[in-house]
Amino acid sequence: MTRPIITEADILALEPGTAFSVPPDALITPAAQDRARERGIEIRRSPNPSREAVALGADHAGFALKEKLKAWLIALGYEVRDFGTFDERPVDYPDIAHRVARAVSRGEIARAILLDGAG
């Protein structure tokens, strides 16, 4: 298995002030470390992907539902990694879906939910 690389783009995809679990062998670029520090994002090295964590992603039309789902999951005790969007302004949904899929494929997170307004 290849060593995961955490880039500045990965950090910019996260909501400020969140925690980000990465595998212990992950390489975190200097730019990613700088952005994480600037945005108050805590990078945690964990031996295994969080099995109680859920990644969420949505386009602008799915934003409101994503926020409700996020609150519900947190109330149930899940850690939520929110990949955006963070408001109702139009966004390029494939970019968000790619970041979510990348986190799952790297083994950083076990579950993901993607929401879009297209149906």
Number of helices: 4
Strand content: 25-35%
Provide mean pLDDT, rounded.
87
The tally of beta strands, per DSSP, is: 7
Rg measurement, Å: 14 Å
Q: How many separate domains?
A: 1
Instruction: Please summarize the sheet with the most strands.
Output: 3 strands, parallel
Helix share of residues? 25-40%
Write the SSE topology:
Layout: E1 5-6, H1 8-12, E2 19-22, E3 27-28, H2 30-39, E4 42-45, E5 50-58, H3 63-75, E6 79-82, H4 93-105, E7 109-115
Parallel strand pairs: 1-3, 2-4, 5-6, 5-7
In short:
The protein is of the alpha/beta class. The chain has helices at residues 8-12, 30-39, 63-75, 93-105; strands spanning 5-6, 19-22, 27-28, 42-45, 50-58, 79-82, 109-115. It has one domain (5-115).
What features would you highlight for this structure?
34% helix, 119 residues, two-stranded parallel ribbon, alpha/beta, 4 helices, globular, three-stranded parallel β-sheet
Structural account:
The chain is an alpha/beta fold. The chain has one domain (5-115). It is built from four helices and seven strands. The strands form three sheets. It has a three-stranded parallel beta sheet, with helices on both faces. Strands 1-3 form a two-stranded parallel sheet. Strands 2-4 form a two-stranded parallel sheet. Strand 5, helix 3 (63-75) and strand 6 (79-82) form a beta-alpha-beta unit. The longest helix has 13 residues, at 63-75. The N and C termini lie far apart (35 Å). The model has no long low-confidence stretch (mean pLDDT 87).
